[in-house]
Specification:
The complex is a heterodimer of chains A (209) and B (655). Chain A is mostly helical and 209 residues long. Chain A has helices spanning 2-18, 22-44, 48-76, 88-108, 120-137, 141-161, 168-196. In chain A, helix 1 packs antiparallel against helix 4 and helix 5 runs antiparallel to helix 6. The termini of chain A are far apart. Chain B is 67% helix and 3% strand. Chain B has helices at residues 2-12, 27-52, 76-99, 109-128, 132-150, 157-188, 205-219, 228-234, 237-260, 267-289, 294-321, 325-360, 371-374, 376-389, 396-409, 425-448, 455-458, 465-483, 489-499, 515-540, 565-575, 577-580, 608-630, 635-654, and strands at 57-62, 69-74, 583-586, 599-602. In chain B, helix 11 (294-321) packs parallel to helix 15. Chain B is globular. The chains are: A mainly alpha (209), B mainly alpha (655). Chain A binds chain B through residues 85, 105, 108-110, 129, 132, 135-138, 144, 201-202, 204-209, and chain B through 631-637, 639-640, 643, 650, 654.
Chain lengths: 209, 655
């Protein structure tokens, strides 16, 4: 069951990497967040801790942040990511390579015995790398926020692995951190949009010394 | 000990009281000069006490600095360097009263005296320090004070440039010295200098190379001489005399001291020094001939003389590698005596050049001419210094070069060994000597003989007495060593014995080095010179006074009919075309009725202007390009850097 969830998460990674439509991308990441909120329950069974973790993740990743982002693009009136730094097909190929790399890499990691079998570690790494790819290859600030979210999802998968060890406060802190940074990015987005009437980040290049 | 510490304190603080005097007044400079004279006097007492009694002065007190001990020691090697230091510092301080008076230079006079005192004190401390940390601190104070001496006239662009090049060079050298002392401390487990001849030579090649680079940079050995010509030309003359006469010798001191630590010396050390010395000597003097600026010319002669000193040191090292006590004695005493001699005559030359510059208001040799009539004493002192630096009897330069010659001929007694290649030192020395003589014929002839070439030279006046007396004193010191070289024999023998560890050395007398014969010959030459001079003077007294020198049959000789410094040196510069690459402009006469023609030549520095400046300009361009490539302002690329760093770190972790 957990592996099925994780494979879906990886497939959503690919979908996001290959899609140009922003609304679809945001929805895909929202679905990814919602699926991940099931993960603590599946991995550790019904417990108070897992329940709180899952609910928090669902509210923040599945509902609140996607809703904020959808609102942001409605106001900025943009629909598509045009001309990324690296093309969509190339990004997909890179994503596939990175995912394969994550699977290989996970085998070399000095992990505890019970973590070696499942897809947890490779999926976490693959999601993190895909988020990074999204951050690096896209021009629109909104897609970069998505990349950031996806990176966070990867970290979340890792933390589920350790959620028995990590206290609830740390989890809550991570989620709050995420929300705050999305807020900050939202403000930055708004400013970029107002200043340049576009959401492309390349104008920011002028800020270098 | 008290005398030595007193001299360090007095000289290094000499400029401080002057800071409290008014800018325009002249009280501070007398006071500073008095303090320096007192410091030098007490230092000379310390040196004399060491030389007269057989024991060395030393003391050590603990110090809160990590690894540092306030350990001072005054032995014969230190004394050989301190002796000229005190003479030059004292004469320079008196000379400064007339050359750089406070009321003419209210802006920088006090700085100059402050750093003049500081550099002198730092050098005394450096020469007597026996602890790595203390040595490096004194070295750094000396380097920085030297920098401030060089940029005394900081409003001039070329002075600032010279200062920067000096600062870069000296700090590059200091970097090597830090590594050197770290390695030495690692080998002997303490930052105190090891005793003479205690360190094993195995694994010390790196130490030697670091020392050669760091100390050679300060001394101005040929490929590392880049800072020297500009810096010595930029500083005020008595500061140049101190820098050229004494400061660059601290590099030689470092080499001598460092090589004394080892029990045995690999042969390649000596060969390296011999080759570098020959290169510095020959190319230093060749570059000197090609110069038109009197102080740059003298600065290149410093490179040449450092070359001669290094030849002596190289011979002494070879003597230790091949177990030849006579070679060690002759090489090292030639090296140390030339250190003393060069300090004396080079500062004499710089001071008299300063007197000429003071009178004419230019450093260009082509603006001088006919100065002997207007500056009789300055001309005489300059002539004395020129004869001494060319290595002619009866002055001191001859004695030390002759000792090195004797050393270079030592391998004749041991035919068949690879040591015979050291015989080649003798022709190298001969080439150096001849070229130096040619160079000083050029500069003396063009500056002091003939007719004035500029209105400044025509209106030149003799320097004030405060400038003439120090020069006279230095000339007397030069004559003293030239005529009575035996008076320095005990010092040289003791220094050589200290340096060579467990080798038993012969005495510097008899067949090995007939110093007393030199002395007799010197007196004879001096007597002959005086006699001929008296004869000529008696004859010329009857000649009429208003005829120009050497009219060559022209009825109305003009000052433009004289040799210029370019044309005089041209034949020799062309001989060294392969190494100098002088730039020549014009000089071709075309057609039957040629029109007006110009000729000029210009010789940029071999290493600095031809190699280092283009190389570093290229490097700066490359790095600017790389920076704009790497730091391009695209946030996505920065993220990629983070990702790559993470991946690299992870793979390093997993390996």
């Amino acid at each position: 069951m957990a592996n099925l969830l994780l494979i879906t998460v990886i497939l959503i990674n690919f979908f996001t990497l290959g899609s140009a439509r922003l609304v679809a991308c945001i929805r895909a990441v929202a679905v990814q967040g919602a699926l991940l909120s099931l993960l603590p329950l599946v991995a550790h069974g019904m417990s108070g801790h897992a329940l709180i973790l899952g609910t928090g993740a669902l509210i923040f990743k599945g509902i609140l942040i996607p809703w904020l982002l959808l609102r942001a693009i409605r106001e900025a009136r943009i629909r598509r990511e045009v001309e990324p730094y690296i093309g969509f097909v190339a990004t997909l190929v890179l994503g596939a390579l990175v995912t394969a790399g994550a699977f290989i890499f996970a085998d070399f990691l000095p992990l505890a015995q019970e973590h070696h079998e499942g897809l947890f570690v490779p999926a976490a790494l693959a999601t993190m790398f895909s988020g990074f790819l999204l951050l690096i290859t896209r021009r629109k600030a909104i897609t970069q926020v998505l990349g950031y979210l996806m990176l966070e999802n990867g970290i979340f998968i890792f933390s589920v692995l350790l959620s028995v060890a990590i206290p609830l406060m740390v989890e809550a802190g991570i989620l709050l951190d995420l929300l705050v940074s999305v807020f900050v990015m939202g403000i930055v987005l708004n400013q970029i949009n107002r200043e340049f009437s576009t959401l492309n980040t390349e104008r920011l290049t002028a800020l270098k010394e | 000990m008290m005398w030595l510490v007193g001299s360090i304190l007095l000289t290094s603080l000499a400029g401080v009281p002057g800071l409290f005097y008014r800018r325009e007044g002249s009280g501070g400079e007398r006071f500073a000069c008095g303090l320096i004279l007192a410091g030098c006097g007490s230092g000379l007492i310390a040196v004399a006490l060491t030389l007269l009694s057989d024991n060395v002065i030393q003391f050590a007190i603990p110090w809160s600095m990590p690894g540092g001990v306030l350990a001072l020691r005054l032995d014969a090697i230190t004394a050989a360097f301190l002796l000229p230091l005190f003479l030059v510092v004292a004469t320079g301080a008196v000379y400064g009263l007339g050359y750089w008076p406070q009321h003419n230079n209210p802006g920088n006079g006090r700085n100059l005296r402050l750093f003049y005192g500081l550099i002198s004190g730092a050098m005394i401390l450096l020469l007597s320090a026996r602890n790595g940390v203390l040595f490096l601190m004194a070295w750094e104070i000396m380097a920085l004070a030297g920098f401030f001496l060089i940029i005394t006239e900081e409003h001039k662009e070329e002075v600032r440039r010279a200062g920067f090049i000096y600062l870069i060079a000296t700090h590059t050298g200091t970097l090597a010295l830090f590594a050197l002392f770290a390695l030495l401390g690692h080998n002997s487990e303490s930052l105190l200098f090891p005793d003479m001849g205690t360190l094993p030579a195995a694994g010390s090649s790196l130490i030697f190379l670091l020392g050669l680079f760091g100390f050679g940079m300060k001394a101005g050995l040929m490929p590392m001489h880049i800072w020297l010509p500009g810096a010595h030309a930029a500083a005020p003359s008595h500061a140049s005399a101190l820098l050229s006469g004494i400061m660059i010798k601290t590099g030689i001191y470092g080499l001598v001291r460092m090589t004394s630590f080892f029990t045995e010396i690999p042969a390649w050390w000596g060969w390296t020094l011999l080759i570098l010395g020959a290169i510095s000597g020959i190319f230093g003097v060749a570059l000197a001939i090609a110069q038109h600026d009197i102080k740059r010319l003298l600065a290149y002669h410093s490179v040449e003389n450092i070359g001669i000193i290094t030849l002596g040191l190289g011979l002494a090292l070879l003597g230790r590698s091949y177990n030849q006590p006579a070679l060690v004695l002759l090489g090292l005493s030639g090296c140390l005596l030339h250190v003393v001699n060069h300090a004396l005559f080079k500062s004499l030359l710089f001071l008299s050049a300063g007197s000429v510059i003071h009178a004419v208001g230019s450093r260009e040799i082509d603006h001088f001419g006919g100065l002997l009539k207007r500056q009789r004493w300055t001309g005489l002192y300059f002539l004395g210094g020129a004869v001494a630096i060319s290595g002619l009897p009866p002055f001191n330069g001859f004695v030390s070069e002759w000792l090195i010659y004797l050393g270079a001929f030592q391998p004749i007694h041991h035919p068949g060994s690879s040591l015979s290649f050291a015989l080649l030192t003798a022709p190298a020395l001969a080439v150096i000597g001849v070229l130096a003589l040619a160079c000083f014929v050029k500069i003396f002839g063009i500056s002091f003989l003939g007719e004035p070439r500029s209105s400044g030279a025509a209106k030149a006046h003799e320097a004030p007495r405060t400038m003439l007396w120090p020069m006279g004193f230095l000339l007397l010191a030069c004559i003293w060593i030239g005529l009575l070289p035996t008076s320095l024999r005990p010092l040289l023998e003791r220094a050589a014995t200290d340096w060579s560890g467990n080798l038993t050395l012969p005495k510097l007398t008899g067949n090995l080095a007939p110093l007393s014969a030199i002395s007799v010959a010197g007196w004879l030459v001096l007597g002959l010179l005086l006699f001929i001079g008296w004869l000529l003077h008696r004859q010329s007294a009857q000649a009429s006074r208003d005829i120009g020198t050497w009219g060559c049959g022209y009825q109305f000789p003009a000052m433009r009919m004289q040799y210029t410094s370019s044309s005089f040196a041209d034949s020799l510069v062309r001989l060294f075309r392969f190494g100098l690459w002088s730039k020549r402009h014009g000089g071709q006469v075309r057609g039957l009725f040629p029109g007006r023609e110009e000729f000029s030549s210009h010789t940029p520095d071999l290493v600095l202007d031809r190699a280092l400046t283009p190389a570093f300009t290229g490097l700066a361009w490359l790095f600017r390009w790389l920076r704009s490539l790497i730091q391009n302002g695209i946030a996505a690329i920065y993220l990629l850097y983070i990702a790559l760093t993470l991946i690299v770190l992870l793979t390093l972790l997993l390996r």
